[in-house]
Design a protein that fits this description.
Low-confidence stretches: none
CATH class of the domain at 489-563: Mainly Beta
CATH superfamily of the domain at 489-563: Golgi alpha-mannosidase II
Bound molecules: alpha-D-glucopyranose
Distance between the termini: 29 Å
Number of helices: 18
Structural class: alpha/beta
Helix content: 25-40%
Shape: globular
CATH topology of the domain at 489-563: Immunoglobulin-like
Strand order of the largest sheet: 13-12-9-5-2-1-15-14
Length: 566
Protein backbone atom coordinates (compact mmCIF):
# COMPACT_ATOMS: atom_id res chain seq x y z
CA UNK A 1 0.00 0.00 0.00
CA UNK A 2 1.20 3.49 -0.80
CA UNK A 3 2.18 5.58 2.22
CA UNK A 4 -0.46 8.15 3.12
CA UNK A 5 0.31 11.83 2.50
CA UNK A 6 -0.18 12.76 6.14
CA UNK A 7 2.93 10.81 7.16
CA UNK A 8 4.91 13.73 5.74
CA UNK A 9 2.53 16.45 6.87
CA UNK A 10 2.64 19.13 9.55
CA UNK A 11 -0.63 20.49 10.92
CA UNK A 12 -1.29 24.01 12.20
CA UNK A 13 -4.09 24.53 14.68
CA UNK A 14 -6.15 27.71 14.71
CA UNK A 15 -8.27 28.70 17.69
CA UNK A 16 -10.50 31.08 15.74
CA UNK A 17 -11.71 33.09 18.69
CA UNK A 18 -8.14 34.19 19.45
CA UNK A 19 -6.52 34.27 16.03
CA UNK A 20 -7.46 37.50 14.25
CA UNK A 21 -10.47 39.79 14.53
CA UNK A 22 -11.39 41.54 11.30
CA UNK A 23 -14.64 43.21 12.39
CA UNK A 24 -13.48 44.79 15.65
CA UNK A 25 -15.85 43.01 18.06
CA UNK A 26 -12.93 41.69 20.11
CA UNK A 27 -13.33 38.12 18.91
CA UNK A 28 -11.46 36.44 16.11
CA UNK A 29 -13.38 35.50 12.97
CA UNK A 30 -13.11 33.75 9.60
CA UNK A 31 -12.28 36.97 7.76
CA UNK A 32 -9.37 37.43 10.17
CA UNK A 33 -8.09 33.96 9.27
CA UNK A 34 -8.46 34.66 5.54
CA UNK A 35 -6.39 37.83 6.01
CA UNK A 36 -3.56 35.89 7.68
CA UNK A 37 -3.38 32.75 5.55
CA UNK A 38 -0.01 33.77 4.17
CA UNK A 39 1.52 33.68 7.65
CA UNK A 40 0.52 30.03 7.93
CA UNK A 41 1.39 29.09 4.36
CA UNK A 42 4.76 30.79 4.90
CA UNK A 43 5.56 28.32 7.67
CA UNK A 44 5.21 25.54 5.14
CA UNK A 45 2.53 23.53 6.91
CA UNK A 46 0.31 21.15 4.98
CA UNK A 47 -2.91 21.22 6.94
CA UNK A 48 -4.93 23.67 9.00
CA UNK A 49 -7.14 22.37 11.80
CA UNK A 50 -9.84 24.81 12.86
CA UNK A 51 -11.24 24.64 16.38
CA UNK A 52 -15.07 24.84 16.26
CA UNK A 53 -16.70 27.66 14.31
CA UNK A 54 -20.23 26.21 14.26
CA UNK A 55 -23.25 27.98 15.69
CA UNK A 56 -22.89 27.83 19.45
CA UNK A 57 -23.91 29.55 22.68
CA UNK A 58 -20.12 29.66 23.36
CA UNK A 59 -20.38 28.17 26.84
CA UNK A 60 -17.14 26.26 26.17
CA UNK A 61 -15.93 28.53 23.35
CA UNK A 62 -17.69 26.63 20.61
CA UNK A 63 -17.24 23.07 21.93
CA UNK A 64 -20.98 23.29 22.64
CA UNK A 65 -22.69 23.23 19.26
CA UNK A 66 -26.31 24.19 18.61
CA UNK A 67 -26.18 23.85 14.80
CA UNK A 68 -23.57 21.60 13.20
CA UNK A 69 -24.31 22.90 9.71
CA UNK A 70 -23.96 26.61 10.17
CA UNK A 71 -21.27 29.08 11.20
CA UNK A 72 -21.63 31.06 14.41
CA UNK A 73 -22.38 34.71 13.57
CA UNK A 74 -19.44 35.70 15.77
CA UNK A 75 -17.15 34.01 13.23
CA UNK A 76 -18.98 34.86 10.00
CA UNK A 77 -21.12 33.02 7.47
CA UNK A 78 -21.01 29.90 5.33
CA UNK A 79 -19.99 32.13 2.42
CA UNK A 80 -16.97 33.30 4.45
CA UNK A 81 -16.23 29.68 5.20
CA UNK A 82 -16.26 28.72 1.52
CA UNK A 83 -13.91 31.60 0.80
CA UNK A 84 -11.57 30.48 3.56
CA UNK A 85 -11.62 26.90 2.30
CA UNK A 86 -10.81 28.08 -1.22
CA UNK A 87 -7.96 30.25 0.13
CA UNK A 88 -6.52 27.28 2.00
CA UNK A 89 -6.75 25.01 -1.04
CA UNK A 90 -5.27 27.65 -3.36
CA UNK A 91 -2.20 27.71 -1.15
CA UNK A 92 -1.84 23.95 -1.42
CA UNK A 93 -2.99 23.24 2.11
CA UNK A 94 -5.87 21.19 3.46
CA UNK A 95 -8.52 22.09 6.02
CA UNK A 96 -9.62 19.84 8.86
CA UNK A 97 -12.66 20.66 10.99
CA UNK A 98 -13.29 19.97 14.66
CA UNK A 99 -15.94 17.33 15.15
CA UNK A 100 -17.64 17.63 18.55
CA UNK A 101 -20.11 14.78 18.78
CA UNK A 102 -19.65 13.30 22.23
CA UNK A 103 -22.08 16.02 23.23
CA UNK A 104 -24.06 18.85 21.68
CA UNK A 105 -25.19 22.13 23.17
CA UNK A 106 -28.29 22.03 25.35
CA UNK A 107 -29.60 24.62 22.87
CA UNK A 108 -29.36 22.21 19.94
CA UNK A 109 -32.89 21.42 18.63
CA UNK A 110 -32.12 17.73 19.24
CA UNK A 111 -31.79 18.42 22.92
CA UNK A 112 -34.72 20.84 23.06
CA UNK A 113 -36.88 18.06 21.67
CA UNK A 114 -35.30 15.43 23.85
CA UNK A 115 -35.98 17.41 27.00
CA UNK A 116 -39.57 18.25 26.03
CA UNK A 117 -41.04 15.04 27.46
CA UNK A 118 -40.20 11.49 28.46
CA UNK A 119 -42.06 10.13 25.45
CA UNK A 120 -40.51 12.44 22.87
CA UNK A 121 -39.03 10.39 19.99
CA UNK A 122 -35.63 12.02 20.65
CA UNK A 123 -35.73 11.33 24.41
CA UNK A 124 -33.24 8.53 23.93
CA UNK A 125 -30.80 10.69 21.93
CA UNK A 126 -29.26 11.76 25.24
CA UNK A 127 -28.57 10.00 28.54
CA UNK A 128 -31.65 10.58 30.68
CA UNK A 129 -31.95 8.73 33.98
CA UNK A 130 -34.30 8.82 36.98
CA UNK A 131 -33.14 9.68 40.49
CA UNK A 132 -31.28 7.06 42.48
CA UNK A 133 -33.59 4.33 43.85
CA UNK A 134 -35.67 5.52 46.76
CA UNK A 135 -34.46 9.13 46.53
CA UNK A 136 -36.61 12.16 45.86
CA UNK A 137 -35.68 13.57 42.41
CA UNK A 138 -33.78 16.83 42.61
CA UNK A 139 -32.64 16.44 46.23
CA UNK A 140 -28.95 16.37 47.21
CA UNK A 141 -27.35 13.01 46.51
CA UNK A 142 -30.22 11.76 44.33
CA UNK A 143 -28.18 11.97 41.09
CA UNK A 144 -28.28 8.70 39.12
CA UNK A 145 -24.61 8.05 39.90
CA UNK A 146 -21.69 9.75 41.63
CA UNK A 147 -19.75 10.94 38.58
CA UNK A 148 -18.13 14.35 38.59
CA UNK A 149 -17.98 16.48 35.45
CA UNK A 150 -14.64 17.27 33.85
CA UNK A 151 -15.29 20.96 34.55
CA UNK A 152 -16.20 20.50 38.24
CA UNK A 153 -19.48 19.68 39.99
CA UNK A 154 -21.78 16.75 39.27
CA UNK A 155 -22.01 15.20 35.79
CA UNK A 156 -25.82 15.22 36.10
CA UNK A 157 -28.28 18.06 35.66
CA UNK A 158 -31.77 17.75 37.05
CA UNK A 159 -34.69 18.68 34.80
CA UNK A 160 -37.65 19.58 37.05
CA UNK A 161 -40.15 19.46 34.15
CA UNK A 162 -39.63 15.74 33.45
CA UNK A 163 -38.22 14.87 36.90
CA UNK A 164 -35.18 13.17 35.38
CA UNK A 165 -31.49 13.93 35.03
CA UNK A 166 -29.30 14.16 31.94
CA UNK A 167 -25.63 13.27 31.78
CA UNK A 168 -23.02 15.89 30.89
CA UNK A 169 -19.39 14.83 31.19
CA UNK A 170 -18.46 18.48 30.53
CA UNK A 171 -20.59 21.54 31.34
CA UNK A 172 -24.35 21.31 31.95
CA UNK A 173 -24.71 23.06 28.60
CA UNK A 174 -22.97 20.09 26.91
CA UNK A 175 -25.35 17.11 27.27
CA UNK A 176 -23.80 13.81 26.13
CA UNK A 177 -25.28 12.27 23.00
CA UNK A 178 -26.37 8.65 23.27
CA UNK A 179 -24.39 6.77 20.64
CA UNK A 180 -26.22 3.55 21.51
CA UNK A 181 -29.10 4.99 19.50
CA UNK A 182 -28.53 4.30 15.77
CA UNK A 183 -30.48 7.43 14.78
CA UNK A 184 -27.90 9.57 16.57
CA UNK A 185 -25.10 7.91 14.68
CA UNK A 186 -26.87 8.33 11.34
CA UNK A 187 -27.48 12.02 12.03
CA UNK A 188 -23.78 12.53 12.82
CA UNK A 189 -22.62 10.65 9.72
CA UNK A 190 -24.97 12.68 7.52
CA UNK A 191 -23.60 15.91 8.98
CA UNK A 192 -19.99 14.80 8.44
CA UNK A 193 -20.76 13.84 4.86
CA UNK A 194 -22.30 17.27 4.26
CA UNK A 195 -19.00 18.94 5.29
CA UNK A 196 -16.87 16.59 3.23
CA UNK A 197 -19.08 17.27 0.22
CA UNK A 198 -18.49 20.96 0.84
CA UNK A 199 -14.78 20.29 0.43
CA UNK A 200 -13.25 19.88 3.88
CA UNK A 201 -10.40 17.42 4.19
CA UNK A 202 -11.10 15.60 7.41
CA UNK A 203 -11.84 15.91 11.09
CA UNK A 204 -10.18 16.25 14.46
CA UNK A 205 -12.57 14.36 16.68
CA UNK A 206 -13.18 15.87 20.09
CA UNK A 207 -12.95 13.44 23.05
CA UNK A 208 -14.01 10.75 20.62
CA UNK A 209 -13.01 7.86 22.89
CA UNK A 210 -15.78 8.93 25.31
CA UNK A 211 -18.70 8.22 22.95
CA UNK A 212 -19.28 4.60 23.96
CA UNK A 213 -20.47 4.33 27.56
CA UNK A 214 -21.33 1.32 29.67
CA UNK A 215 -25.14 1.76 29.69
CA UNK A 216 -25.26 0.63 33.33
CA UNK A 217 -23.47 3.88 34.26
CA UNK A 218 -22.12 2.48 37.54
CA UNK A 219 -20.72 4.65 40.35
CA UNK A 220 -17.00 5.43 40.06
CA UNK A 221 -14.22 5.32 42.65
CA UNK A 222 -13.90 8.45 44.78
CA UNK A 223 -10.45 10.00 45.11
CA UNK A 224 -9.47 11.23 48.59
CA UNK A 225 -10.53 14.84 49.04
CA UNK A 226 -12.90 14.82 46.09
CA UNK A 227 -16.66 15.07 46.24
CA UNK A 228 -17.27 12.94 43.15
CA UNK A 229 -16.54 9.55 41.66
CA UNK A 230 -14.48 8.93 38.54
CA UNK A 231 -16.66 7.62 35.72
CA UNK A 232 -13.65 7.16 33.40
CA UNK A 233 -13.61 3.35 33.47
CA UNK A 234 -17.20 3.36 32.18
CA UNK A 235 -16.66 5.73 29.26
CA UNK A 236 -12.98 5.85 28.25
CA UNK A 237 -12.46 3.46 25.32
CA UNK A 238 -15.91 2.07 26.15
CA UNK A 239 -17.38 -1.27 25.05
CA UNK A 240 -18.51 -0.29 21.51
CA UNK A 241 -15.81 2.26 20.76
CA UNK A 242 -14.03 0.41 17.97
CA UNK A 243 -17.33 -0.69 16.44
CA UNK A 244 -18.56 2.92 16.29
CA UNK A 245 -15.37 4.19 14.68
CA UNK A 246 -15.37 1.43 12.11
CA UNK A 247 -18.98 2.15 11.30
CA UNK A 248 -18.18 5.86 10.95
CA UNK A 249 -15.30 5.08 8.67
CA UNK A 250 -17.43 2.88 6.47
CA UNK A 251 -20.35 5.31 6.31
CA UNK A 252 -18.38 8.55 5.96
CA UNK A 253 -14.81 8.06 4.77
CA UNK A 254 -14.79 4.92 2.63
CA UNK A 255 -13.98 5.76 -0.97
CA UNK A 256 -12.67 9.22 -0.13
CA UNK A 257 -8.90 9.40 -0.14
CA UNK A 258 -6.73 12.28 0.97
CA UNK A 259 -8.68 12.66 4.19
CA UNK A 260 -7.14 13.12 7.62
CA UNK A 261 -8.76 11.86 10.80
CA UNK A 262 -7.34 12.35 14.26
CA UNK A 263 -9.13 11.30 17.41
CA UNK A 264 -8.61 13.22 20.62
CA UNK A 265 -8.43 10.47 23.24
CA UNK A 266 -7.82 11.35 26.88
CA UNK A 267 -6.63 8.32 28.84
CA UNK A 268 -5.79 6.26 25.74
CA UNK A 269 -3.06 3.65 26.20
CA UNK A 270 -0.43 2.61 23.68
CA UNK A 271 -2.12 -0.75 23.21
CA UNK A 272 -5.47 0.87 22.45
CA UNK A 273 -3.84 3.46 20.17
CA UNK A 274 -2.35 0.66 18.07
CA UNK A 275 -5.85 -0.68 17.54
CA UNK A 276 -7.34 2.73 16.79
CA UNK A 277 -4.68 3.60 14.22
CA UNK A 278 -4.00 0.24 12.56
CA UNK A 279 -4.79 1.08 8.91
CA UNK A 280 -6.19 -2.40 8.36
CA UNK A 281 -8.90 -1.76 10.96
CA UNK A 282 -10.09 1.45 9.29
CA UNK A 283 -10.86 3.52 12.37
CA UNK A 284 -8.76 6.75 12.55
CA UNK A 285 -5.41 7.80 11.12
CA UNK A 286 -3.90 8.90 14.42
CA UNK A 287 -4.86 9.83 17.97
CA UNK A 288 -3.99 12.61 20.37
CA UNK A 289 -2.74 10.87 23.49
CA UNK A 290 -2.27 12.64 26.82
CA UNK A 291 0.40 10.78 28.74
CA UNK A 292 3.20 13.17 27.81
CA UNK A 293 1.21 16.28 28.70
CA UNK A 294 0.12 14.71 31.98
CA UNK A 295 3.76 14.01 32.87
CA UNK A 296 3.87 16.88 35.37
CA UNK A 297 0.60 16.01 37.06
CA UNK A 298 0.55 14.03 40.29
CA UNK A 299 -1.85 12.64 42.86
CA UNK A 300 -2.94 16.07 44.10
CA UNK A 301 -4.55 18.25 41.41
CA UNK A 302 -3.63 21.42 43.29
CA UNK A 303 0.08 20.83 43.62
CA UNK A 304 2.57 21.71 40.90
CA UNK A 305 4.94 18.87 40.14
CA UNK A 306 8.17 19.72 38.32
CA UNK A 307 8.97 18.05 35.02
CA UNK A 308 10.98 14.85 35.38
CA UNK A 309 12.75 14.56 32.07
CA UNK A 310 13.46 10.85 32.50
CA UNK A 311 9.73 10.22 32.88
CA UNK A 312 8.91 12.28 29.80
CA UNK A 313 11.48 10.36 27.77
CA UNK A 314 10.11 7.07 29.06
CA UNK A 315 6.64 8.02 27.82
CA UNK A 316 7.81 9.08 24.35
CA UNK A 317 10.01 6.00 24.06
CA UNK A 318 7.04 3.74 24.76
CA UNK A 319 4.78 5.52 22.25
CA UNK A 320 7.48 5.56 19.58
CA UNK A 321 8.16 1.85 20.02
CA UNK A 322 4.50 0.90 20.42
CA UNK A 323 3.45 2.45 17.12
CA UNK A 324 6.61 1.67 15.17
CA UNK A 325 5.22 -1.27 13.21
CA UNK A 326 1.49 -0.66 13.18
CA UNK A 327 -0.29 2.68 13.52
CA UNK A 328 0.99 6.22 13.64
CA UNK A 329 1.76 8.86 16.29
CA UNK A 330 0.64 12.44 16.46
CA UNK A 331 3.16 14.81 18.05
CA UNK A 332 2.16 17.88 20.03
CA UNK A 333 3.21 20.07 22.94
CA UNK A 334 0.48 22.63 22.63
CA UNK A 335 -3.16 23.12 21.81
CA UNK A 336 -6.01 25.24 23.15
CA UNK A 337 -6.22 23.06 26.29
CA UNK A 338 -2.55 23.11 27.31
CA UNK A 339 -0.34 25.82 28.80
CA UNK A 340 2.38 27.24 26.55
CA UNK A 341 5.24 24.76 26.27
CA UNK A 342 8.03 27.33 26.51
CA UNK A 343 6.68 28.36 29.92
CA UNK A 344 6.01 24.79 30.96
CA UNK A 345 9.05 22.74 29.91
CA UNK A 346 11.37 25.52 28.73
CA UNK A 347 12.42 28.84 30.21
CA UNK A 348 10.35 31.86 29.17
CA UNK A 349 12.71 34.47 30.64
CA UNK A 350 14.05 36.95 28.07
CA UNK A 351 17.45 35.25 28.21
CA UNK A 352 16.33 31.75 27.25
CA UNK A 353 12.85 32.02 25.77
CA UNK A 354 13.76 31.82 22.11
CA UNK A 355 16.46 29.27 22.57
CA UNK A 356 14.35 26.93 24.70
CA UNK A 357 11.33 27.32 22.39
CA UNK A 358 13.47 26.21 19.46
CA UNK A 359 14.92 23.30 21.40
CA UNK A 360 11.44 22.09 22.33
CA UNK A 361 10.23 22.46 18.74
CA UNK A 362 13.16 20.49 17.33
CA UNK A 363 12.93 17.66 19.84
CA UNK A 364 9.22 17.20 19.15
CA UNK A 365 9.31 17.58 15.37
CA UNK A 366 12.10 15.09 14.91
CA UNK A 367 10.19 12.23 16.47
CA UNK A 368 8.35 9.84 14.20
CA UNK A 369 4.75 10.97 13.74
CA UNK A 370 2.73 13.93 12.50
CA UNK A 371 3.61 17.20 14.30
CA UNK A 372 0.97 19.75 15.28
CA UNK A 373 1.83 23.43 15.74
CA UNK A 374 -0.61 25.48 17.79
CA UNK A 375 -1.07 29.15 16.86
CA UNK A 376 1.59 31.29 18.49
CA UNK A 377 3.86 28.33 19.25
CA UNK A 378 5.80 29.31 16.14
CA UNK A 379 6.48 32.67 17.83
CA UNK A 380 7.45 31.16 21.17
CA UNK A 381 4.37 32.70 22.82
CA UNK A 382 4.31 32.30 26.61
CA UNK A 383 1.83 31.80 29.43
CA UNK A 384 -0.04 34.91 30.52
CA UNK A 385 0.37 36.91 33.74
CA UNK A 386 -3.09 36.27 35.24
CA UNK A 387 -3.38 38.39 38.40
CA UNK A 388 -6.56 36.96 39.88
CA UNK A 389 -9.38 34.55 39.09
CA UNK A 390 -11.25 37.50 37.56
CA UNK A 391 -8.75 37.46 34.68
CA UNK A 392 -9.75 33.94 33.59
CA UNK A 393 -12.56 33.23 31.11
CA UNK A 394 -12.27 29.47 30.69
CA UNK A 395 -15.24 27.48 31.98
CA UNK A 396 -12.86 24.78 33.19
CA UNK A 397 -10.69 27.17 35.23
CA UNK A 398 -13.75 28.83 36.75
CA UNK A 399 -15.45 25.50 37.46
CA UNK A 400 -12.38 23.96 39.07
CA UNK A 401 -11.78 27.09 41.12
CA UNK A 402 -15.35 27.03 42.43
CA UNK A 403 -15.23 23.33 43.26
CA UNK A 404 -11.80 23.48 44.91
CA UNK A 405 -12.21 26.73 46.85
CA UNK A 406 -15.94 26.74 47.65
CA UNK A 407 -16.56 23.02 48.14
CA UNK A 408 -13.27 21.33 48.90
CA UNK A 409 -11.78 23.97 51.20
CA UNK A 410 -8.63 24.64 49.12
CA UNK A 411 -6.80 27.92 49.57
CA UNK A 412 -7.48 30.33 46.71
CA UNK A 413 -3.76 31.05 46.41
CA UNK A 414 -2.86 27.38 45.90
CA UNK A 415 -5.56 26.98 43.29
CA UNK A 416 -4.49 30.15 41.49
CA UNK A 417 -0.87 29.06 41.46
CA UNK A 418 -1.84 25.92 39.59
CA UNK A 419 -4.25 27.71 37.23
CA UNK A 420 -1.58 30.26 36.36
CA UNK A 421 0.79 27.48 35.37
CA UNK A 422 -1.69 25.04 33.82
CA UNK A 423 -4.90 26.89 32.97
CA UNK A 424 -6.19 26.62 29.40
CA UNK A 425 -6.52 30.40 29.02
CA UNK A 426 -2.71 30.52 28.78
CA UNK A 427 -3.12 29.14 25.28
CA UNK A 428 -6.08 31.32 24.44
CA UNK A 429 -4.70 34.84 24.81
CA UNK A 430 -4.91 36.55 21.43
CA UNK A 431 -2.39 35.84 18.73
CA UNK A 432 0.42 38.40 18.79
CA UNK A 433 0.66 39.89 15.31
CA UNK A 434 2.54 43.09 16.06
CA UNK A 435 3.61 45.52 18.79
CA UNK A 436 0.53 47.76 18.60
CA UNK A 437 -1.83 48.11 21.60
CA UNK A 438 -3.90 44.93 21.10
CA UNK A 439 -1.11 43.16 19.24
CA UNK A 440 -2.84 43.70 15.90
CA UNK A 441 -5.43 41.12 16.98
CA UNK A 442 -8.33 43.54 17.18
CA UNK A 443 -9.20 47.21 16.96
CA UNK A 444 -11.83 46.64 19.66
CA UNK A 445 -11.54 45.22 23.17
CA UNK A 446 -10.18 41.67 23.10
CA UNK A 447 -12.38 39.05 24.79
CA UNK A 448 -9.31 37.90 26.77
CA UNK A 449 -6.46 40.28 27.50
CA UNK A 450 -3.51 40.30 25.13
CA UNK A 451 -0.24 39.23 26.75
CA UNK A 452 1.73 42.42 27.52
CA UNK A 453 4.87 40.78 26.13
CA UNK A 454 3.47 41.20 22.59
CA UNK A 455 5.62 44.32 22.29
CA UNK A 456 8.59 41.92 22.06
CA UNK A 457 7.01 38.68 20.92
CA UNK A 458 5.02 39.09 17.73
CA UNK A 459 4.73 37.80 14.19
CA UNK A 460 5.91 41.00 12.49
CA UNK A 461 9.18 41.00 14.45
CA UNK A 462 9.64 37.25 13.96
CA UNK A 463 9.19 37.45 10.20
CA UNK A 464 11.98 40.04 9.95
CA UNK A 465 14.46 38.24 12.17
CA UNK A 466 16.16 35.29 10.43
CA UNK A 467 17.04 33.85 13.86
CA UNK A 468 13.47 33.91 15.15
CA UNK A 469 11.54 30.95 16.49
CA UNK A 470 9.27 31.34 13.43
CA UNK A 471 12.10 30.79 10.95
CA UNK A 472 13.42 27.92 13.04
CA UNK A 473 10.00 26.20 12.87
CA UNK A 474 9.92 26.87 9.14
CA UNK A 475 13.23 25.08 8.83
CA UNK A 476 12.01 22.13 10.91
CA UNK A 477 8.98 21.73 8.67
CA UNK A 478 11.17 21.98 5.59
CA UNK A 479 13.44 19.28 6.98
CA UNK A 480 10.49 16.90 7.34
CA UNK A 481 9.48 17.57 3.75
CA UNK A 482 13.01 17.14 2.43
CA UNK A 483 14.38 14.19 4.31
CA UNK A 484 12.67 10.80 4.55
CA UNK A 485 14.72 9.98 7.66
CA UNK A 486 12.58 12.51 9.56
CA UNK A 487 9.38 10.89 8.34
CA UNK A 488 10.27 7.22 8.34
CA UNK A 489 13.45 6.75 10.32
CA UNK A 490 13.44 4.17 13.12
CA UNK A 491 13.54 5.79 16.53
CA UNK A 492 16.04 4.91 19.27
CA UNK A 493 16.07 6.74 22.60
CA UNK A 494 19.54 7.35 24.06
CA UNK A 495 20.57 8.33 27.60
CA UNK A 496 17.22 7.35 29.19
CA UNK A 497 18.52 8.14 32.69
CA UNK A 498 20.00 11.54 31.95
CA UNK A 499 18.07 14.24 33.85
CA UNK A 500 19.04 17.06 31.50
CA UNK A 501 19.56 15.76 27.99
CA UNK A 502 16.91 14.39 25.63
CA UNK A 503 18.78 12.40 22.99
CA UNK A 504 17.72 10.03 20.24
CA UNK A 505 18.65 8.77 16.81
CA UNK A 506 16.55 8.20 13.72
CA UNK A 507 17.68 5.83 11.03
CA UNK A 508 16.40 5.23 7.53
CA UNK A 509 18.39 3.29 4.94
CA UNK A 510 21.96 4.47 5.36
CA UNK A 511 21.05 7.87 6.80
CA UNK A 512 21.16 8.48 10.52
CA UNK A 513 20.13 11.58 12.50
CA UNK A 514 21.21 12.36 16.03
CA UNK A 515 19.10 14.81 18.02
CA UNK A 516 20.17 16.10 21.44
CA UNK A 517 18.24 18.72 23.37
CA UNK A 518 19.41 20.25 26.62
CA UNK A 519 16.36 20.64 28.88
CA UNK A 520 18.30 22.67 31.41
CA UNK A 521 19.83 26.07 32.01
CA UNK A 522 23.27 24.48 32.57
CA UNK A 523 25.79 23.32 30.00
CA UNK A 524 25.72 19.53 29.58
CA UNK A 525 27.89 16.99 27.82
CA UNK A 526 26.29 14.06 26.05
CA UNK A 527 28.18 10.92 26.95
CA UNK A 528 27.04 8.76 24.06
CA UNK A 529 28.93 6.05 22.21
CA UNK A 530 30.48 7.36 19.10
CA UNK A 531 30.50 10.96 20.39
CA UNK A 532 33.74 11.69 18.58
CA UNK A 533 32.44 10.58 15.20
CA UNK A 534 29.14 12.37 15.67
CA UNK A 535 30.69 15.68 16.59
CA UNK A 536 32.40 15.79 13.21
CA UNK A 537 29.23 14.81 11.30
CA UNK A 538 27.12 17.36 9.41
CA UNK A 539 25.40 19.74 11.85
CA UNK A 540 22.00 20.15 10.21
CA UNK A 541 20.40 22.41 12.75
CA UNK A 542 21.13 24.12 16.06
CA UNK A 543 19.96 27.12 18.04
CA UNK A 544 23.33 28.22 19.49
CA UNK A 545 26.97 28.27 18.40
CA UNK A 546 28.17 24.86 17.14
CA UNK A 547 29.34 22.91 20.17
CA UNK A 548 32.81 21.55 20.72
CA UNK A 549 32.43 17.81 21.11
CA UNK A 550 28.94 17.10 22.37
CA UNK A 551 29.08 19.75 25.09
CA UNK A 552 25.77 21.63 24.77
CA UNK A 553 25.04 25.13 25.98
CA UNK A 554 21.95 25.79 28.15
CA UNK A 555 18.77 24.87 26.21
CA UNK A 556 20.77 24.07 23.12
CA UNK A 557 19.57 21.54 20.58
CA UNK A 558 21.80 19.92 17.97
CA UNK A 559 20.78 17.82 14.99
CA UNK A 560 23.55 15.87 13.22
CA UNK A 561 23.24 13.77 10.10
CA UNK A 562 25.59 11.11 8.80
CA UNK A 563 25.69 8.47 6.15
CA UNK A 564 26.50 5.01 7.37
CA UNK A 565 29.04 3.05 5.43
CA UNK A 566 28.60 -0.67 5.21
C1 LIG B 1 -11.88 18.62 24.29
C2 LIG B 1 -11.57 20.01 23.81
C3 LIG B 1 -11.79 20.97 24.94
C4 LIG B 1 -13.25 20.90 25.32
C5 LIG B 1 -13.69 19.48 25.64
C6 LIG B 1 -15.18 19.35 25.62
O1 LIG B 1 -11.02 18.19 25.26
O2 LIG B 1 -10.28 20.07 23.29
O3 LIG B 1 -11.43 22.27 24.63
O4 LIG B 1 -13.50 21.71 26.44
O5 LIG B 1 -13.21 18.54 24.71
O6 LIG B 1 -15.67 19.49 24.31
Amino acid sequence: MENPWWHRAVVYQIYPRSFADADGDGMGDLRGIIDHLDHIAGLGVDVIWLSPIYRSPQDDNGYDISDYQDIDPVFGTLADFDELLAGVHERGMRLVMDLVVNHSSDEHPWFTESSSGTDNPKRDWYWWRPARDGMEPGTPGAEPNNWGSVFGGSAWEYDPATREYYLHLFSRKQPDLNWENPEVREAVYAMMTWWLDRGVDGFRMDVINFISKDPALPDGAVRAGSAYGDGGPSFIDGPRMHEFLREMHERVFAGRDKMLTVGEMPGVTVAEAVRYTDPARREVDMVFAFEHVDVDRGPDPWTLYPLQLTKLKGIFARWQAGLAEVGWNSLYWNNHDQPRVVSRFGDDSPQWRERSAKMLGAVLHLHRGTPYVYQGEELGMTNAPFASIADFRDIEALGHYAQAVDHEGRSPEDVLTVLRARGRDNARTPMQWDASPHAGFTTGTPWLAVNPNHTEINAAAAAKDPDSVYHFYRRLIELRHEDPVVVYGDFTMLLPDDERLYAFTRRHGDTELLVIGNFSGEPARAGIDDAGAWSSAELVLTNAPAPAGLELEPWQVVVYRRTLTR
